[in-house]
Specification:
The protein is α/β, with parallel strands linked by helices. It folds into 2 domains: about 140 residues, no CATH class; about 220 residues, Rossmann fold (3-Layer(aba) Sandwich), CATH 3.40.50.1460. The longest helix is centred in the first third of the chain and has 19 residues. The radius of gyration is 20 Å and the shape is globular. The two termini are about 35 Å apart. It is built from 12 helices and 14 strands.
Length: about 375
């Protein structure tokens, strides 16, 4: 039977088959620290009429054990603490626990039988702090070995996004580079971004750069308000405070840019993509909303997403200057060649795993993509980025 332009039993290589894994909390109230975390887990293939679901509960002792392993891997990514063997065991334990708790035996088997081009994790805001990119499949391999993105399930009403029908073909990038003047590899990153236009003559690419002492909070806010940027890229240091996630920040020349600054930014319309290439820039805290009633957010990722940004990329762990730069180079070169954000993240992730996984480096498994990983398979670069 031919209804979609393909013959029975075949699928065009670029035809998306996105699988949604949804982990949602049925109760509106935030969980108390003493109670187990109960969720409804669902698996759905886009375009099909049935969704499979199961109930799951994360015991607090399992959550605490995972967070202790995360802390060990965090220190290992900074070159201290665990041995290589202990780090490998922690990654394996995390991957199995996330898989077994949330998918169960039947969910594991079901997901293994789905031929997918991408996996979209729709994860509840109260467990956004877990390292979902380490979740294993049935064969004990991380699910991120194929395109993988997070979408946040929240009770906070999102703002109106950009009108895609009104977009022009120019890709405008605001690059904030090396504000603290101590990251040599970021110079290489800026050369890559500045050199995007000659290697892509079919696209109009405009790059605005705030570098070193010019990369202040005031200049950043003024430049963002005056322009209309598709991509905002930070290449600098980050700070994550697990006890006070709202105090997490990217460090600019005159001090930290926190969630409070982000929530007050003014722009014509939000950028499509924010790429925060700083340490722990994708981390959030547990058991809270992405934005509270007091207008404080759960980390920088939550702040930008709550302002209407369609995609946010960051790092879960510490990231070394050189591996971060190589990840970014691969991402941008793939993005403009493939016109596909999900594939760009995936190729950069795979290269980081192949190149740096043996060097106490978690860049590949720790890269986090908040956004619809299947979207870029449905739009051209002008709207996808």
């Amino acid at each position: 039977m031919l209804l979609d332009g393909t013959r029975s039993g075949t699928r065009a290589p670029d035809q998306p088959r996105v699988v949604q894994l949804q982990i949602s909390r049925p109760r509106a109230v935030l969980p108390r620290r003493s109670e187990p975390l109960e969720f409804l887990v669902a698996l759905h293939v886009e375009g099909t009429p049935i969704t499979w679901q199961r109930n799951a509960a994360l015991a607090r002792e399992d959550e605490q054990r995972m967070l202790e392993m995360v802390d060990g891997l965090r220190r290992w990514s900074d070159g201290v603490g665990l041995t290589r063997r202990q780090a490998t065991a922690a990654v394996t334990d995390l991957g199995r626990t996330l898989r077994d708790v949330f998918l169960g035996t039947k969910g594991r088997r079901l997901l293994a039988g789905l031929d997918r081009t991408a996996l979209l994790l729709m994860v509840d805001e109260t467990v956004l702090h877990l390292p979902w990119e380490m979740m294993f499949d049935t064969d004990h391999a991380p699910l991120v070995m194929r395109p993988f993105g997070r979408v946040v399930t929240t009770r906070v009403a999102p703002p109106t996004g950009r009108d895609l029908a009104m977009e022009d073909p120019t890709v405008r990038i605001l690059a904030v580079e090396n504000p603290t003047d101590d990251l040599a590899a970021s110079e290489r990153v800026m050369e890559v971004i500045q050199g995007l236009s000659p290697s892509n003559p079919d696209l109009v690419i405009e790059v605005t750069t705030l570098a070193r002492g010019d990369a202040t909070r005031r200049r950043f806010a003024e430049t963002l308000r005056a322009g209309d940027f598709d991509i905002v890229h930070f290449a600098g240091h980050g700070r994550f405070d697990g006890d006070h996630p709202s105090d997490s920040a990217v460090i600019l020349a005159d001090g930290p840019l926190t969630d409070e600054h982000v929530l007050k930014l003014r722009w014509k319309q939000p950028p499509f993509v924010v790429w925060n290439s700083s340490c722990e820039s994708a981390r959030v805290g547990p058991d809270t909303r992405i934005v509270s009633n007091a207008r404080r957010s759960n980390g920088l990722a939550s702040a930008f997403l709550s302002r209407g940004v369609e995609a946010y990329l960051g790092h879960y762990f510490f990231v070394e200057d050189t591996s971060a730069a190589e990840f970014i180079e691969t991402f941008y070169s793939t993005l403009l060649r493939e016109r596909n954000v999900g594939r760009a993240v995936q190729e950069a992730r795979q290269r980081a795993i192949d190149r740096f996984a043996g060097e106490c480096d978690l860049t590949g498994l720790g890269a986090v993509f908040f956004g619809d990983v299947g979207t870029a398979q449905r739009r051209d670069l002008a709207t996808a980025s």
